[in-house]
Sequence to fold (178 residues):
Amino acid sequence: MEKVDVSSKVSAEEKKEGLSLSSTEVIELLHTVHEKGANFRFKAAGFSMKPSIRNNDVITISPLKEIPPSVGEVVAFRHPRSNQLLIHRVVRKKHGTFFIRGDNLRQTDSHIPLENILGVVTRIERQGRVLFWPDRFRHRFRARLYFRGYLAYIKIRFRLRTALRFIVTALLPAKTFI
Fold:
């Protein structure tokens, strides 16, 4: 494989901050890397997957390898309307389409066809440490159990947060303005 040196074309500031690519460029790069059978690593940006994936976590996306994602797995996909690259969790699948949602979001990303799913998250690194993440290729059953359990945890967490907000709002005295 040929290596390309782009360091001379990148400023010191860009080296420090990292290279910023558009969603379309990242998708093209991800496709190219996966065509060679390799995993794709990049720094996550955003809070839609918090607490699983946080802003600036380094995530590894692996090709699907002819195995469609299971409910509970975290996938990289191209949104059909916006063409954005997103990393969200599969919450349901029906008739060959997937309902996908960020852990920190209430709404799903509509129906996502299998051809829009670019890969699955197989590793997360936070502040230099590798976080636990089950290997879907070697331990399929364990991975399914883990991801379905985590999906149940996310649902319970949302309900508890909503109930707590309601209780706090009901108990706090209303502000009166003169």
